[in-house]
């Protein structure tokens, strides 16, 4: 039988595929928190491009039933996550309230090595100006800044939610996960910086593993080698990540000529970087 619990935490057995892992959740935890727990336990095994149903083991039926509407964990129980056979198309709709910008390792020491670095700096700067105009949170990382220098001076980090040093290639650090958890309703990450085939690729794969939709800005993302860049973008696009451009991103975010910030966003777009040939190498 199930023993009722008071406050504090409640033990729950989380089952997925052939796995079953005991964990605990706060008393009164609902659907969203349970999904997060499944992701934290099984994120690397879950294909986020499928639909899921959460089921509860019901003693009275001696089998799993679909999680009742409004279910809250009040007592010890057993849950399982069942992937359905339907593939979800990634539509890639963007709204400012559910979007966060990730600016990855745009540092001084990379300037001589990264192809078209001057162009991706100016596009990155425009994206950050757009984020400030639209009230979109910005998270910035710097790869080993002690040795590789800080973010280039041309990029204005005023108002960034986080600027973090890192040694890990992926931007998905504990502090970044904590910051994302604080922003209600985050669905989409707009990602740009360097290098496409290392930090950008590893960040993107970790983010979709956590159920977020990722948009990589092709005209603000580069590598030392164009071949590395091209194959990384191809691989990521096949994984369901959206490879897009800065203009497409900014206009998707305003969505309407009548948007109060449209004129300012339009002016940012008009100040485009010169044609660099970078996009012909996607």
TrEMBL record:
It holds the Pfam family Isochorismatase. PANTHER family: HYDROLASE, ISOCHORISMATASE DOMAIN-CONTAINING PROTEIN 1. InterPro entries: Isochorismatase-like_dom, Isochorismatase-like_sf, Isochorismatase_domain. This is Isochorismatase domain-containing protein 1. It comes from the Eukaryota. CDD domains: YcaC_related. Residues 99-247 form the Isochorismatase-like domain. Belongs to the isochorismatase family.
């Amino acid at each position: 039988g199930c023993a009722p619990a008071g406050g504090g935490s409640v033990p729950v057995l989380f089952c997925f595929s052939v796995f079953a892992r005991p964990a605990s959740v706060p008393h009164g935890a609902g659907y969203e928190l349970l999904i997060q727990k499944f992701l934290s336990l099984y994120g690397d095994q879950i294909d986020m491009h499928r639909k899921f149903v959460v089921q509860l083991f019901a003693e009275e039926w001696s089998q799993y039933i679909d999680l009742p509407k409004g279910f809250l964990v009040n007592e010890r129980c057993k849950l399982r996550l069942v992937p359905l056979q339907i593939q979800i198309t990634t539509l890639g709709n963007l709204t400012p309230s559910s979007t966060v910008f990730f600016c990855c390792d745009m540092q001084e020491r990379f300037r001589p090595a990264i192809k078209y670095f001057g162009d991706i700096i100016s596009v990155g700067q425009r994206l950050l100006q757009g984020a400030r105009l639209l009230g979109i949170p910005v998270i910035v990382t710097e790869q080993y800044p002690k040795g590789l220098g800080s973010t280039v001076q041309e990029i204005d980090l005023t108002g960034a939610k986080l600027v973090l040093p890192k040694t890990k290639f992926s931007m998905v650090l504990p502090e970044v996960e904590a910051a994302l958890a604080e922003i209600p309703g985050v669905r989409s990450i707009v990602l740009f910086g360097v290098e496409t085939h290392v930090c950008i690729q590893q960040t993107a794969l970790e983010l979709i593993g956590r159920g977020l939709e990722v948009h990589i800005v092709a005209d603000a993302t580069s590598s030392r080698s164009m071949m590395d860049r091209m194959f990384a973008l191809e691989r990521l696009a096949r994984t369901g990540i959206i490879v897009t451009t800065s203009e497409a991103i900014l206009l998707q975010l305003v969505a309407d000529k009548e948007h109060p910030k449209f004129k300012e966003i339009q002016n940012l777009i008009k100040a485009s970087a010169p044609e660099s040939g970078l996009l012909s190498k996607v």
